[in-house]
Amino acid sequence: MRTFFLLLAFIPFSFAHATPFEKGDANKGKALADKQCQACHVSLFKGDGSGVYTRADRKVKTASQLTARISGCNANTGAGWFPEDELDVAAHLNKTYYKFK
Questions:
Q1: Which pLDDT score, from 0 to 100, does residue 4 have?
Q2: pLDDT at 95
Q3: What is the rounded CA–CA span in Å between residue 11 and residue 60?
Q4: Which of 14, 39, 65, 91 has the most CB atoms around its CB within 10 Å?
Q5: What does the pLDDT look like over 5-35, one tens digit per residue?
Q6: Domain ranges of the chain
């Protein structure tokens, strides 16, 4: 019984180190973002378009906001991504720009 309670004590720590998009493939996400997102972001923010992610007043401040933003862009642009594609893009953007934990 003592071992059981000891194991229960460590469960929260195992989840604390998981990244919010760990099941996403950041490499696939980069390819999707480069193909579908970059042209729009360049037209809005100039340069290479990364200003949308790095600007001081960026709108996305949490992992859930990032997920919602990607879903909204997918719907608004007609990209036709599946949920796993959105997860891949989120993994890429989080790894590259946001660093949510």
A1: 45
A2: 97
A3: 29
A4: 91
A5: 444 454 454 455 578 999 999 999 999 999 9
A6: 23-98
Backbone φ, ψ for residue 55 (5° rounding):
-65, 150
The residues, any chain, with a CB within 8 Å of residue 44's CB and separated by 6 or more, are 52
- Read out DSSP for 35-92? HHTHHHHHHHH-TTSTHHHH-TT-S--SHHHHHHHHHHHHHHHT----HHHHHHHHHH
* pLDDT of res. 1: 56
Residues 79 and 89: beta-carbon distance below 8 Å: no
- The residue type found at 47 is G
Local confidence band at 79 (pLDDT 50, 70, 90 cut-offs): very high
Tokens 């992610």 found at: 53
Spell out the residues 6+ positions from residue 67 whose beta carbon is closer than 8 angstroms to its own.
86, 90
Do 94 and 20 touch, CB atoms closer than 8 A? yes
Distance between CA 49 and CA 72 in Å, rounded?
Answer: 18
